[in-house]
Design brief:
globular; 5-stranded antiparallel sheet; alpha+beta; two-stranded antiparallel sheet; about 220 residues; single chain
């Protein structure tokens, strides 16, 4: 693990991580300090912060499949640890566990993003080797989650001048195009938006592609 003084410096420096690439560098350094290979933060089902492509793809797989440790974590103990995505995890989340293993992921850990007793999201980390966290790693991960939760709660989209595609000020709104595409499908097929979203996820799973890629395809078909 990195020097014990590194993590406090990282947490204190979060306020300066204003752009998407800075988010990722900050998140990756936190992952390194926790001896994880990546981390991602989601508010409900919306991915807003991630360190690397694998973290984003794990969150997308959970969103697409409707299963995985981040969707219904048991926080009787914090973090919720899936120390081995082997047979037991495969029985509980068969499609997700298979997707995670294809990405080379063997263990996942989930901390709550919370305001007091209310949980409004998750911080999820992964490793390519099985095994539980140490007590220090579990505690430090909760520190990262709590500081990030405070940052996300303080976010106001109208206070940031630079917003790009899939971005909203201090956070990246990773799936904005998914919901836009669901709206297009809803109108095109004459079904409710929730049903259109289910069909979009099913198409992504059948094609073995990220749901965001399917959404981009649909939006590209729209007239200029």
């Amino acid at each position: 693990m990195e020097d014990a003084g590194v993590l406090p410096q990282l947490l204190a420096g979060l306020a300066q991580a204003a752009e998407a690439e800075e988010h990722r560098r900050w998140a990756q350094r936190c992952a390194d300090a926790l001896e994880l290979e990546g981390i991602a933060a989601s508010l409900n089902s919306e991915l807003v912060w991630f360190s690397d492509d694998t973290s984003a793809r794990l969150e997308d797989a959970q969103f697409t499949l409707g299963q995985g440790p981040g969707l219904a974590p048991d926080f009787d103990q914090v973090p919720y640890q899936v120390a081995d995505l082997g047979q037991a995890a495969g029985e509980r989340w068969p499609q997700f566990a298979a997707e995670a293993r294809k990405l080379g992921v063997r263990a996942m850990f989930v901390w709550p993003l919370r305001a007091g007793a209310a949980r409004f999201g998750t911080l999820t980390g992964y490793r390519s080797r099985p095994g539980p966290l140490t007590g220090r790693q579990a505690h430090d991960g909760l520190r990262v989650a709590d500081v990030l939760a405070g940052r996300l709660l303080a976010w106001h989209p109208d206070t940031q001048a630079q917003n790009g595609r899939g971005a909203a000020g201090a956070v990246e709104v990773h799936r904005v195009e998914v919901y836009q595409a669901a709206g297009v499908l809803s109108h095109r097929l004459g079904v409710a938006v929730d049903e259109a979203l289910v069909r979009l996820r099913a198409q992504a799973y059948a094609a073995d592609r990220p749901v965001t890629d399917i959404a981009h395809d649909i939006l590209r078909e729209l007239p200029p």
